[in-house]
Amino acid sequence: MKSRRPIPITDEKFPLFPKLIATSFGAGFLPIAPGTWGAIVGIVLWLPLYIWCPGNIAFILTIIEILFFTIAGTWASGVSEKYWGKDPVAACVDETVGQLISLLPLCGGPQVAPWWLILVSLALFRIFDIFKPLGIRKMEAFPGGWGMMADDILAAIYSAIIVEIILLLI
């Protein structure tokens, strides 16, 4: 779990753009469960693709979102550590990326997945992210923003595998 060290909301030194990316557009500043709010930002970014695009297009656009936020988020998370210390709780773009990854199985097929699988995806991702089993915790050893992102990416891969298995069973 991330540290509970308070983050200064008015840190004039921290440039706005990396702060917006690192905090998932400010979701990281919410006082309760900022990681979960960061994951919900991932759902909000993904839902229009899921609702309005055919499955294969939604899948490709989700991959593009993942790549963009992984690259920008790794950079912004590294910047956030310079101002707020190691793995600050407000930097939740890693949860946004993780949630996007865990939603990938829902946008690839010809059928519309049941809505409750979005909630299952969120719950699975947060469980893996919080408890960090199966080597997830070891991913935090990477330096800077890479370590912040890597553990959530692995947690998301595990949750995506389980969501895919559920899809195959229903």
Low-confidence stretches: none
- The helix-strand sequence is HHHHHH
Report the helical percentage: 55-70%
Number of helices: 6
Rounded to the nearest angstrom, the radius of gyration is 15 Å
> Could you give a short account of the major beta sheet?
none
Characterization of the model:
This protein has 170 residues and is an all-alpha fold. It contains six helices and no strands. α1 (16-22) packs across α3 (55-84), α2 (34-52) runs antiparallel to α3 (55-84) and α5 (116-131) crosses α6. It is globular, with a radius of gyration of 15 Å.
Identify the notable features of this structure and list them briefly.
about 170 residues; about 0% strand
Give the helices and strands, then pairings:
Layout: H1 16-22, H2 34-52, H3 55-84, H4 93-103, H5 116-131, H6 144-169
Helix pairs in contact: 1-3, 2-3, 2-4, 3-4, 3-6, 4-5, 4-6, 5-6
What's the gist of this structure?
It contains six helices and no strands.
